[in-house]
Amino acid sequence: MAYMNKNAELKNGYNAYIDSSVDDMGTQMDVGLLLMEAGDTYVYEDAKKEVAILLFSGSVTYEWDGKKVEADRPDCFHHDAYCLLAGCGNSAASGSTAASTAAGTYTAGTYSATATGINTTTPVTVTMTFSADAITDVQIDVANETKGYGADIADEMVKKILDAQSSEVDGHSGATITSGAIKKAAESCINQAKGVAVAPTEANKAETVVPDGLSVEEVESSVVELGDITPDETKDFDVVVVGAGAAGVPAAGWAAELGGHVALLQKQSIVVSQGNCGSAIIKSKSTEAGKKMWVHMTNGLCDWRADTSLLNAYVENSEEALMWYLNRAGLTDQTEYGDGSLVDSVKDPSSLLHNDEKEIFAYMCTSQDLTGVWKDRMDTYDFGDEHCYFFAPWIGPKPKNVGDVLATVLENVQAKNSNLEAFFNTPAVKLVHENGKVTGVIAKDENGKYIQFNASKGVILATGDYMNNEAMVKRWCPDVDGFDKKQYQKTGDGHIMAIDAGAKMENLGHTKMMHDFDSGLMYEEPFLYVNMEGKRFCNEDTGFVYMGNITKYLPKFNGNNVDANHPDGSLGWYCQIYDNDYMSYANGPIPEQVMTKYIPGAVENPQGVFTNLIDTYKADTIEELAGLLGIPADELQKTIDRYNELCDQGTDADFGKKSAYMHKIEKAPFWGVRKHIRVSSIDSGVNTNANGQALDADGKVIDGLYCVGNVGGVFYGGADYPFHQTGLSLGRCYTFGMLAAKHAMGQL
Asked: Which residues contact 531 (CB under 8 A, 6 or more apart)?
């Protein structure tokens, strides 16, 4: 049978082989294997089905209809099979030992259970020991959760569970997903000890009615709950925004300022967004033809798969959106936004200011003619007098980022608009929709209470991407499977809720953004690149845009920083090698004192970097450098010798790099940057129009539903994010958050 190979690795509990609700394979029954440890109890009761339990091997106690029998079968070949047959509606129980019938609240013993946390490949494990009337010991394994967050809360949660003698305890702020997984697994242990039926994972999957376009695994890796939910409370709003990030905060802020009663729901305890800039087109400096050329250029970089109506919407509206964001953050002295009066920072840097209270500042504002980029890339085009300019304020210093600025924006908007209510630690789990119209959201608060948020003017989904939903990654963006992820708790919640409401996911070939801006500053220079075996592997003039594609075929490496938590290592690792003469031929030389702060431990309290991610090294010998980078010294030396030989010849016979970039590595000290290409974002979602409205399979608007940011699709369409404009991704989020809010409030 095809289903018999579905579970390559058996797990404790019920392992489903045939699910009659999906396909009974002609058997007219469910078939599964029940794997039990000493002290485990399994209870089955169905009013419409009888149950037959065949003992393969082991010692169990069967109980049914007030009867009990002890059964023992040494192995699966023993003639005493001990089959229990119970009629419809009868409760049939099997326990792995006779001790399961001991008196008291619990059956004394040790029980274990797992639940999925942040790390979707390695679950959280909780092991609990019980006396007859108490929880006596709790052990929690969260080693594979996020360091600095979920991986550090085990002791705290152990104390809470022991003190409360219950799984119903408060989670840890900032580690909501991990806390929830611990509580879920603890509840399972308690149910086992009580002899209560523990709903097996596969059985739950069978009961889940999954709409077309989704899989059970995708849903279960999110916070979304399908099926009927009876809310404990109902609240009425004009607009409900789900997700407090780069699209959600602007959406909520704009809707509130336009007079709407707005609810902003956030799964986490804080505003969350990554990145350090967001950009916009400067309409006042750009010609009409130049703007159209930008759309043409961008679509070309996206394999001609972008929806040009969305690109045009960004061109026409991004300036207003970005200025609103900067203004509300206290990072500009302009009192008006969207008036076309942006000033090049070279002429007037005072237009971008410090927010001293928040220790945030916009420290650079670029102003660039994108038509020049186009001419460089495609010299058959001559734009002449036509121009398209953008600007990209950089937020800093690291580790401060756009998330910190957005928190300030929300705070400032709420201070002036009491009609904006924010609900943190309140994940949305289901859209309320009927007859093709979305009318609200059901969310779950910290206490597990369901709240229905009605939205008379619309629901705006802005929950970010799906990089942490392994099942969605494998189906929709398999290119990034095996790479570490830069974000957490991005489980595709908005995508799944939208699809459940009838929206259509954009076509395969989802857009991935992959890079490493944190380990060192030489990310784009075409020096010598070697893999973690010390071997050269590409023409280094490829550029970092496509390094994720190239490194997919390199050996995995178990790095030493916070994100490399795959037991067998992860993809995306390589090293950049250069010598101390780099200043003489680098594109935009970087002072050595700037480079030095990227060396772990070289500078006390370095500013503007993520200290846990820096990975740059300086050494007097090649052998020493190899040791610091974790690559074989003999292979690195052979590679450098060959590379220097090619430099002397003046031609790269191995990979074809331009001779202008061929520079020997011979002058000490030697430098190396260990690069770690990670998934920054997956920038694809459901089909939308230029207002951010979600579209169904026929291209029709789903009334009341907006999908913005990385929940919205077809802004790019290509497999690789186009890095031609700094900050385009965040600028898109600000823009379509604004447009969705305006449309919902009747302003478009």
From this structure: 537, 551, 554, 555, 573, 574, 575, 631
- How many angstroms separate the CA atoms of 687 and 684, rounded? 9
By percentage, how much of the chain surpasses pLDDT 70? 81
Cα separation, 549 vs 737, in Å, equals: 31
What's the pTM?
0.73
Please spell the DSSP secondary structure of 327-349, one letter per residue: HHTT-B--S--SSS----TTT-G
Task: State yes or no: pLDDT of 501 exceeds 60.
Answer: yes
Nearest-angstrom CA–CA distance, 242 and 426: 10
What residues contact 612, with CB distance under 8 A and at least 6 apart?
Answer: 561, 562
Phi first, then psi: give them for residue 321, nearest 5 degrees.
-65, -45
| 729's tokens | 């991704």
Residues 148-185 pLDDT 10s: 667 789 999 999 999 989 998 887 766 767 888 899 88
3-state secondary structure 5-32: HCCCCCCCEEEEEEECCCECCCCCCCEE
Residue 499 and residue 211 in contact, taking contact as beta carbons nearer than 8 Å: yes
- For every residue of 630-660, DSSP letters joined together read TS-HHHHHHHHHHHHHHHHHTS-TTT---GG
Give 83's strand partners: 54
Among candidate residues 118, 208, 224, 177, the one with its CA nearest the CA of residue 496: 224
* Side-chain-side CA neighbours of residue 196 (13 Å): 11
- Strand (E) or helix (H) holding 695: strand 693-695
Inter-helix orientation angle 176-194/154-164, to 10° = 40
Omega before residue 589 within 30° of 0, cis: no
First to last CA, the chain: 56
Q: What is the CATH number of domain 109-207?
A: 3.90.1010.20
List Cβ neighbours of 26 (8 Å cut-off, separation of 6 or more): none
Q: State the CB neighbour count (10 A cutoff) for residue 294.
A: 27
Residue whose C-alpha is closest to residue 161's, from 185, 197, 195, 194: 185
Task: Please compute, for residue 372, the number of CA atoms within 13 A of its CA located in the half-sphere on the CB side.
Answer: 7
Instruction: Give the range with max mean pLDDT: 192-206, 383-397, 481-495.
Output: 481-495
Domain ranges of the chain: 109-207, 233-269+419-511+682-744, 280-396, 517-676
Question: Rounded to the nearest 10 degrees, what angle do helices 633-649 and 622-629 cross at?
Answer: 120
Q: What fold is seen in the domain 517-676?
A: Flavocytochrome C3; Chain A, domain 1 (3.90.700)
Beta strands 233-242 and 262-265 are: parallel
CATH class of the domain defined by 233-269+419-511+682-744? alpha beta
Let me know if 1 is exposed, middle or buried by CB neighbors in 10 A (0-12, 13-18, 19+). exposed
Q: Going by C-beta distance under 8 Å and a sequence separation of 6 or more, which residues neighbour residue 65? A: 86, 87, 90, 91
Are the CB atoms for 241 and 462 separated by under 8 Å? yes
DSSP 8-class letter at 509: S
| Strand ranges for 219-303 from DSSP E | 233-242, 262-265, 280-282
- Type of residue numbered 534: G
pLDDT (tens digit per residue) in 34-61: 777 776 777 766 656 777 777 777 777 7
Least confident of 381-385, 702-706, 734-738: 381-385
User: Is 512 strand, coil or helix?
Assistant: strand
